[in-house]
Structure formats: structure tokens, C-alpha cells
Amino acid sequence: MSQQSSFGQLLDEGISVFLTPSALDLSSVVASVKSPKAGAVVLFAGTTRDNFDGKPVTHLEYSSYPPLALKTMLSIAQSMKQKHALTAITMAHRLGVVPVAEESILIAVSAPHRHPAWMAGEEALEMCKEKVEIWKLEEFGGDEGGVWRANRDRAGGVPLDVATSSHVPK
Fold this sequence. Notes:
The protein is an alpha+beta fold. It has helices spanning about 25-35, 65-85, 115-130, and strands spanning about 10, 15-20, 40-45, 50, 55-65, 90-95, 95-100, 105-110, 135-140, 145-150, 160.
């Protein structure tokens, strides 16, 4: 995974978190959590869809302050590993432009049994969206422009023509 970690990577025992401008590699992320001790491997892949609220989306663009985001991701991964007795967890987030149909986030977990793996994968995703310092620009087609949102936002966001430099992360 070193080719994917140009924005940074943090490691702990059975834990890897990284940010990258490159396309995410599902196979290598899954391989990073496989273990003879694990009877279950769960992978979540968050993919850019082509619409939001009936508006066509041309791409997403993610921005972050990597040192802080990586620390938060590591804290979440450590918490999930301990709470759910995971064998391993990897959290990878892509920064920069993510075209439609490509992944922006991968979370892979392994555990001795499937139930803790499912629970940890879901919880890690929700915590990542809630806490990790990543913002996204949804770019719409046509005259619509785009909208900046905190990664956790499921609502309106700040339209680009309204956003000021204090609202727009870069």
C-alpha cells in the first residue's frame, strides 16, 4: 500500500490508515486485513455516484488537513479494534478529484466472527464521516456549479457562489 500513501499513513498493530490522491486498490486493502486468525473479512467501498437530490454529479473533490485527519482516523481504528476485538482494520480515504464510479473511501476489517466484523465496519464508517477532518465538493453538471460539505453532511452544503474563502477548505 505504500504507493497509495503519499498524503500520509499511520500504522499500529493490526491497524493501517492512509490518505492518498491515487485510485484506491480494493484488493490490497482487503489483503492488508487478512489473517489466519480471522473468520470474517468485511469491506465497505464508498463510491462516487452520478447524482445527488436529482442533480447530476460530475465528480467529487475531497480536501483535508492530512496530519489531523490521519490522527483522527487512527483513533477511530484503534477504538474499533478494541471495542469489537478485531484482528485488523484498514481505513483509506482518497483526496483530490474522485470521478463517478470510483471509490473515495475503503474500510476493511477482519475478525474471528462475522457479527463483530459487520458491526465494526459500519461503526467505523459512521465515525469517519462524523469526525474525520475531510470536506468534499460535489460538482454538478451544467450551470448548477458545486457545493462544499463537511463529509458528514447529508443536507444542502454551501453553494460555491455563496462560499467565501473562510468556508471553502483548501
